[in-house]
């Protein structure tokens, strides 16, 4: 019984560094994702050319951008983009 308790405590101590490393890795991945999403939103919000590129390569991401801006009360970005892109084709 004493050996089992000793072994359990020893395993707990050896798993602590691994658990901390995993937690730090998850935290870093979350922060990279957060800053990446902010950068992407900021770039789409300031550049109509970038939004046009996104509409060709990743239309689902552009749709999320449009919906998020509309939910925040900023309407007309989608319509302005479509009007500008239609005029540029003609």
Envelope shape: rod-shaped
Biggest sheet record: none
Give the CA-CA distance, first to last residue.
84 Å
Helix content: over 70%
Cα-atom Rg, whole angstroms? 24 Å
Number of helices: 4
What is the averaged pLDDT score? 88
Give the DSSP E fraction (strand runs of 2 or more residues): under 5%
| Uncertain parts | none
The ordered H/E elements are HHHH
Number of DSSP strand runs: 0
Structural class assignment:
mainly alpha
Compact overview of the structure:
This protein has four helices and no strands.
List keywords for this structure.
90 residues, mainly alpha, membrane, rod-shaped, 4 helices, 90% helix
Please, could you describe this protein's structure?
The protein is an all-alpha fold and 90 residues long. It is built from four helices and no strands. Helix 1 (2-46) packs across helix 2 and helix 2 (48-57) packs across helix 3. The protein starts with a helix and ends with a helix. The model has no long low-confidence stretch (mean pLDDT 88). This is CEBPZ opposite strand. It comes from Papio anubis. Keywords: Membrane, Transmembrane, Transmembrane helix.
